[in-house]
Known about the structure:
Strand order of the largest sheet: 2-9-5-4-3
Number of domains: 2
Oligomer: single chain
Structural class: alpha+beta
Low-confidence stretches: none
Helix content: 25-40%
Radius of gyration: 20 Å
CATH topology of the largest domain: N-terminal domain of MutM-like DNA repair proteins
Largest sheet: 5 strands, mixed
Number of helices: 7
Distance between the termini: 34 Å
Amino acid sequence: MPELPEVEVIRRGLAPLLEGRRFLGLEVGDKRLRQQSTPEELRRWVVGHRLVKLERRGKYLRFDLEGGATLLIHLGMTGRLLAGPLPTPPLPHIHLVFQVEGGINLYFQDVRRFGQVLVFPPGVKPAPLEQVGAEPFSPEVTAAWLLAQARGKTRPIKNFLLDARVMAGIGNIYACEILFAAGLHPATPAGRLTLKEWDRVLRQTRRILKLAIAKGGTTVSDYLNSKGESGLFQLELKVYGRAGEPCSRCGAPIVRLVQAGRSSFFCPACQPEKD
DNA sequence: AATCGTTCCTGATAGC
DNA sequence: TGCTATCAGGAACGAT
Length: 275
């Protein structure tokens, strides 16, 4: 599942390949993604235009095009954005293929079609980005800022971390790992964390996201980078997907708990509940 | 206002 | 062997 580190690894792979190059064509499959501009809109605003800059906001990739249009791509759960020659025989679940100057094909593959490919004409703000909260590495994000955001909130810290409108880019895997590293029970009400605890959460968030980027992301089932390669951070996971296994720190069995319809994994000894 | 639950989508896997 | 049920989860949306 692509979260901030996976999307960042893809951005770093694609930016040097695509920036400065012009989109030459587009082929669209017959099945639409959950959120997808029409082929006509995509051709109108993307084809014929040069990519000025490729940026990441949370889990979104933002393609800034010459002329002022914006292409927004979200990989959802199983989306892949691959660059290179089209494989033969053709891969299943390829929904869009952009032809780019220099003989490059940029193609979007997504088994479950939770992804988004949306174009916004010049002068139109990409609406989904308005909902995206602070970047975890932004200097505006401090322990005090997080404390203020969580003030009075009764929802569990796990759900709070997953809320992209507060801090963007953290999904289920990294939320579990961050809470383990910070020694906090996932059910702790967000509003009950102290400044010191928020400081731990923020430090561990940044450490883990940075390390995961360096390791090329986490591949547990579907994630591949823009070259089609797996990540390595799955080897560093301490709790995610490890229900019943002994905690690497204390040996107690890792527990699975369902919160907001998502699995949380934690060590009941290292992450005790607040009284 | 804040929080929770549901929906979308398909392939892998478990259980009978 | 072949069937059905369950699970994975980001974000939008509806309900309370």
